[in-house]
Amino acid sequence: MGHEMSTPSDEHIPVLAQTLLEQISLPANAVMVDATVGYGGHSLLFGRNLGAQATILGLDVDEECVEKAGKNLSGLTCKVVLVRENFAKMEQIIAENGLKNADFVLADLGFCSGQMSNVERGLSFQKNMPLDMRLDSRLKTTAADIINRMAEKDLADLIFRFGQDRASRRIARFIVHHRKTAPITMTEQLAAIVCRALGQPAMGRRSKIHPATRTFQALRIAVNNELENIETFLEAAPRVLAPNGKIAVISFHSLEDKLVKENFKKNQLSGIYKILTKRPLTATDDEISQNPRARSAKLRIAQKT
């Protein structure tokens, strides 16, 4: 698959980087799992302090991310192992690479601005793109498949559950009505249908959020099985962490944050974890002004007992 290399403006600025460095100090020979390595921003920050005995295992489903992370992390002294795989398979991949337990597991559940602007992916409605939304091109089902094939009630449930949009029934009805005439294949088409369903123009909006944002979020979560994968990853974490090892998760919307919060709480009640963040850590105004994506980021950290 040929990808245009993105311009530096696309580069992913690691979110809450400074906050993480203040909260987590690693031994020089640490094993770090960067479960969503992206372009390697977080790994680079931690990797600079790691010695030759240390290992960073970076996972990402996106081929382009793995490639870029490889270039960005090539100067580190520690061993860097990059695998194109979903973090739901973290446990298996740690074993396959003969690694002992991890001292630090990090997952940044956001995705790179480079992925957002990649026209092939169809994650954004700022540009007109094919309705794809697969972060892993090996997945079979695209957003267009769901939009054009799913029964109206199921579509409404999906938009309600994953997009938390109270107008989900109406949106689903408009989508189904529209696809009877012609399939919906492009992001702009879908965004326009959602705007019509909500009786809101895309421009001149009262709220900061585009009317189609929730529907797009719902589709992206469904296409990539995001919530199931997060649950699998969170369940595996205590088994891969070394005693006193830490897990840090950065989430970007309440569905993700709720899974992390409940998992940490459950593990704390079972005596497996000690939660280190009483409430989630968030970005400073300064960071948000430099990186607007950080606005909705929430960081939770727990330590294995």
Could you walk me through the main structural features you see in this protein, from its secondary elements to its overall organization?
The chain is α/β, with parallel strands linked by helices. The protein folds into two domains: 13-114 and 226-304, Rossmann fold (3-Layer(aba) Sandwich); 140-223, DNA polymerase, domain 1. The chain contains 13 helices and seven strands. The chain has helices spanning 17-23, 41-47, 63-72, 90-96, 113-117, 143-149, 152-163, 168-181, 187-198, 213-223, 226-240, 254-269, 285-290, and strands at 31-34, 55-59, 79-83, 102-108, 241-251, 273-275, 298-304. Strands 3-2-1-4-5-7-6 form a seven-stranded mixed sheet, with helices on both faces. α3 links the parallel β2 (55-59) and β3 (79-83). The chain is elongated and about 60 Å long. It starts with 16 loop residues before the first helix and ends with a strand. The relative contact order is 0.14.
CATH topology of the largest domain: Rossmann fold
Total discrete domains: 2
**Radius of gyration from the alpha-carbon trace, in angstroms:** 20 Å
Q: What distance lies between the first and last C-alpha atoms, to the nearest angstrom?
A: 44 Å
Widest sheet, order of strands: 3-2-1-4-5-7-6
Detail the poorly predicted runs. Answer: 1-10
Structural class: alpha/beta
Number of strands: 7
Strand percentage: 5-15%
Describe the oligomeric state of these chains in a short phrase: single chain
Average pLDDT rating:
91
- The general outline is elongated
The profile of the biggest β sheet is:
7 strands, mixed
